[in-house]
Structure formats: structure tokens, C-alpha cells
Specification:
There is one protein chain. The protein has 2 domains: about 80 residues, no CATH class; about 210 residues, Fumarylacetoacetate hydrolase, domain 2. Helix content is about 20%, strand content about 25%. Strand 16 and strand 17 form a beta hairpin. The chain is globular. The N and C termini lie far apart (about 65 Å).
Length: about 350
């Protein structure tokens, strides 16, 4: 039976109209969804956390490692009805560290959030970040690496760049463009993740602009980098040539200038050093780069690689990487980054 809402309201009156409408078969308007929780914790960088990005249905989710497993931060926020950023990019670029700290603390204390804890072993990792404003890399920045390459120590940091399409993930694959080059090489590197806008900052103040650190690999095609007029970028910025992960460890927990750093190929150790061998340390790099480019939250700085690369060996001992090789990169307290070559 058709329902004329105007006639009905005249006869029934406003009081009880919604209940009576349902009784005579009139359609009711859909209820509006509850408003999203608002940010209440202010803005700033996260502290005391180990963060990661994992994929669900192909979409990136922000995770925080805890003693109970990896917390899906956005899901915990939904269950607890509190504000939470959805991704690590959101956290960094909107400086939502205090909100994430609050969600993690509340989830650990409240069983309502129990479904948001996941086993890390079963997760599929995504790129640690996906949309930095800049990816800046530093060449020849370890003393012993410069020696093995037969070049003097640089007077100033040697800078080049990668692109967002270069970003790759823990557990991912690097596709080798065999038709373009063949001299593929590993370069394990400490990656600085910027946490707030930095423009012409001093070395003394530089640490306060760092959100955290991660393990990375400046994957390289030596022949493209060296045999095309010295264009390092063309040998280093190809798609997938910048694996980073698995974790971002907040800067308050580690000293980026004194960490053990290693790279293994098919289980064989090839690089083993410490970041204390850096020519330009993390403070110097953030300060120097910020003089020329305004660093934004979420920007990445690849700080250089230690000795032990294939390109540093005598020509008759160089066995370049090939499809089927597995690369494992580890930095003290930051976790092990693994990826395969295809």
C-alpha cells in the first residue's frame, strides 16, 4: 500500500510518527553513520615505537609491534572509538605520533581491542612508506668503501635521488632489467626518516627532525651508473631499486651513528661494518641537505653503503647478482630486510 507522508503526518502528528510509519510500511531514511573520532592528542613525532606497513586486501595498514603481536592501529582506533591514522605515511605527514602512542597504550590495556592484534609471521608487508616528497641518497659515505672504490673521501656529501616508483618492500622482489644492464650490486644502507619540516637546520638541532631509522638497500646497476656518462641516477633509481623495511624504529630508541650493519647474499656475508665509519654522520647529513632542499615529514635519506660491494672487488673476482639470488640486509635494532631477485 502506498504511503503519503504528508497526509500521514497530519493525521498521526509528529509524536510517534517514526514508529507508526514503520507500522504502515513507509520506508524510513537510513541512519547517518556516527561521526569519525576527532584528533585530541595534538601533533608530534612518535616515540618508543617500532612501526611497520602491512597489506590487507592490497591496502596499506599501519602496524605497531607490541608484546601481544602487531597492532593494526586503525582497527584498534575503530574498536576503541578513538582517532588513529590509517597508514605510516599519514602518521608522518600529519605528525600523528601522539595519537598512535595513545592508541597503542589503550589497546594494550583494553580487551575491546584484542581483535586488532595480529601475528607478525603471517603478515604481508607493504613498502614502509609510499609517498615521500623526496628520496635523497648519499654516495661514497663510508671511509672504507671509498678506499675499496679507489677514490678520495668526498669533501661534501655526494647526493643523488630515487623516485617513489623505486620504493620496494620487505619480502618483495627486485626485477632485474637484464636487457638494460648486467652488473647488479647490493648496497645495504641506514635510512633516515624525516619527522618534521627541516630548512637550514644546524647539526646540533638535526636529531630533533628525525622521526626514526630503517634498513634499506640502494640497489644498483653498476654498468648503467658508470657507463652512461656517469649518471648515477639511471643505475640506481629504476623501479623497485629502493627496498626499505621491515620496520621504522623511532629515533629516541637508537643512535644512528653507531649501529652494526650487514648484507648477505644467499646466506653469505658480503658487507659487515658499523655506521660509525660514515664520512658524514646522520646529523651532518640532515643539516647539509636541509640547506639545499626543505626536508618534509616522510622524506627518506639513504646514508650510503659500507665496504664489501661487488663493484669494489678486482674485475676478475666480480660475480654480479642474478635472478634467483636472495638479499638479506640487517642493521642493529632495526630489523632484517629481505628481498629476492627475479
Amino acid at each position: 500500500m502506498a504511503c503519503d507522508r504528508r497526509d500521514f503526518l497530519k493525521s498521526a502528528g509528529v509524536v510517534g510518527a517514526l514508529a507508526a510509519t514503520a507500522a504502515v510500511g513507509c520506508a524510513q531514511p537510513a541512519s547517518a553513520p556516527p561521526p569519525a573520532p576527532e584528533r585530541t592528542r595534538g601533533r608530534g613525532m612518535a616515540r618508543g615505537l617500532t612501526l611497520l606497513t602491512f597489506l590487507r586486501d592490497g591496502q596499506p595498514h599501519l602496524g605497531a609491534r607490541t608484546d601481544r603481536g602487531v597492532l593494526d592501529v586503525a582497527e584498534a582506533g575503530r574498536l576503541l572509538n578513538v582517532f588513529a591514522p590509517a597508514t605510516l605515511d599519514d602518521l608522518l605527514q600529519h605528525k600523528d605520533g601522539p595519537s598512535v602512542e595513545a592508541v597503542v597504550t589503550a589497546a594494550l590495556a583494553n580487551e575491546t581491542a584484542a581483535p586488532a592484534f595480529l601475528a607478525e609471521e603471517g603478515l604481508e608487508y607493504g613498502p614502509l612508506v609510499s609517498r615521500p616528497d623526496k628520496i635523497i641518497c648519499v654516495g661514497l659515505n663510508y671511509k672504507r668503501h671509498a678506499e675499496e672504490m679507489g677514490v678520495p673521501l668526498p669533501q661534501w656529501p655526494i647526493l643523488f635521488n630515487k623516485f617513489n616508483a623505486s620504493l620496494n618492500r620487505h619480502g618483495g622482489e627486485v626485477r632485474l632489467p637484464m636487457d638494460l644492464g648486467g652488473e647488479f650490486d647490493y648496497e645495504v644502507e641506514l635510512v633516515i626518516v624525516i619527522g618534521r619540516e627541516a630548512h637550514r637546520v644546524s647539526e646540533a638541532d638535526a636529531p630533533s627532525y628525525v622521526a626514526g631509522y630503517a634498513t634499506g638497500n640502494d640497489f644498483t646497476s653498476r654498468d648503467l651508473a658508470n657507463n652512461r656518462g656517469g649518471q648515477w641516477m639511471i643505475g640506481k633509481a629504476l623501479d623497485g631499486f629502493a627496498p626499505v623495511g621491515p620496520h621504522l624504529v623511532t629515533a629516541d630508541q637508537v643512535d644512528g651513528d653507531d649501529l652494526a650493519i650487514e648484507c648477505r647474499v644467499n646466506g653469505e656475508t658480503r658487507q659487515s661494518s658499523r655506521t660509525s665509519d660514515l664520512v658524514f654522520g646522520t646529523r651532518a647529513l640532515v643539516s647539509y641537505i636541509s640547506n639545499y632542499f626543505t626536508l618534509k615529514p616522510g622524506d627518506l635519506i639513504f646514508t650510503g653503503t659500507p665496504e664489501g660491494v661487488i663493484g669494489g672487488l678486482p674485475p676478475d673476482r666480480r660475480v654480479w647478482l642474478k635472478p634467483g639470488d636472495r638479499i638479506e640486509c640487517s642493521i642493529e635494532r632495526l630489523g632484517e630486510l629481505r628481498f629476492d631477485l627475479v
